Amino acid sequence: MRLSEIIQFLEGIAPSAFQESYDNSGLLVGDASMEIKKALVCLDSTPEVIEEAIAEGANLVIAHHPIVFSGLKRFNGKTHIEKAVMLAIKNDIAIYAIHTNLDNVLAKGVNQKIGEKLGLENMRILAPKKGLLQKLITYCPDAHAEGVRQALFAAGAGKIGNYDACSFNLQGQGSFRANEGAIPFIGELGQVHWENETRIETIFPRHIASRVISALKAAHPYEEVAYETFFIENEWQQVGSGLIGELPEAIQPEEFLNRLKTKMEIPMVRYTQPAGNSIKTIALCGGSGSFLLGAAMVSGADVFLSSDFKYHQFFESEGKIMIADVGHYEGEYFTIELLSNLLTENFPTFAVIFSGITTNPIKYYC
User: Fold this and answer.
1) Which of 28, 39, 27 is nearest to 1 (CA)?
2) pTM of this structure
3) How far apart are CA 128 and CA 230, in angstroms?
4) 256 and 118, same structural domain?
5) 229 and 248 both lie in a single domain
6) What sections of the chain are H helices per DSSP?
7) I want to staple 101 with a disulfide (CB 3.0 to 4.6 A). Which of 18, 150, 239, 241 is the partner?
8) How far apart are CA 90 and CA 29, in angstroms?
9) How far apart are CA 291 and CA 230, in angstroms?
10) Structural domain of residue 291, as residue ranges?
C-alpha cells in the first residue's frame, strides 16, 4: 500500500487545514509515493520508537505529536529530535504526525475517544472554530440546476451539522451577449440573450475550495461559469477545540474521580474543589487545554478535564467548576488505540501495530 493512500484516508477524517498555526502535522519524513509494509502507531516518535519500528519491520511511524515543531538547522544527533529524524531517514522509515487536526474534529477525534471512555452522551464541540467555511453563489439554467447542485454536493459542499444537500435557490433571469470567439451553449452571437436561471447558494469547507469549483465547472453547461465565493464567519459546529457532553446520570464527585482513574487508566488526578454535590456535565480537552477553562465555565459544565495546568491557573476556576488535570500523556494515550482502529477498519489486510514503548517523560512516585 502506498503512503499517499494512508495519508488521504487520515486527512479525510482530520484535514491538515484544521491544525493550529503552531502545529506541524503531516508527513515529516518520507516520500508519499513509497510502499508501506507495516505501520507502527505511537504518541511520540522518539528515537526509541524508531528503533522499535526497525525491529518490527515497520517502515511507517504514525504519531500523534510531531517530532519536529520548528525548523532543524543541524543534523548531528545532539538532540532526541535530530536522532529520531536521522534514524528514520537512514532506515527509510516515514514519519507522519496527526496532531491538533485530530484534536479539532468531533467525529472520530481525540476528544470524542476520551468522551467514549467516560461514557458521555450528547457530545459536541466546546469551542467551535470560525473562518473555516466559505459560501458559493452561482447561476445556471433552470433545467440544469439539479445536476449542478448534485455535483456540488458530491464534491463536499452543502453540509451543515447532521444535514447534507443544503442549498438556497432563487429563480430569476440572467442576460448575456456572446461576442466574437465565443461558443455559446444557448443564444446567438452578437445578440443579447435572456435565460431563466436558478441562483444556487451553498457552503463548503475552505480546504476543499478547488474541488468544489472544479465540480461546478464540470457540471455547468455554460462556456463561462458565473460564480463567486467568499469567507463567512459562521462557527463550524463539527470542528473546534475541546468537547462537552453529559453522563447518563449525575454522580458524586468522588465517584467521578474514581471513574477517571479507572476508565483512563491513570495513576493520579490533580483537581480542585467541586462546585457542587454532583457531577453530570463534563467539558474536556485532550492535551494542554487550560486555554479553554473560560469556555468550560461559560458552558455550565461541572468539570473541566484536561492537563498541564499551572499552579495559579487552578485558582481561575473561582469555585465555579472543578478542574481535573489527568496529565498530558495520560489524556492522549488512547489516540494510539483510536488511530489503530481507524486504520484496521478501513484497511483490514494492512499490518498496524501499537508501540510498546511508554514515551511519557514524567514519572510518578506514589
Assistant:
1) 39
2) 0.90
3) 20
4) yes
5) no
6) 3-13, 47-56, 80-90, 100-103, 110-118, 145-154, 209-219, 253-263, 293-298, 311-315, 328-332, 335-346
7) 18
8) 11
9) 30
10) 110-126+241-326
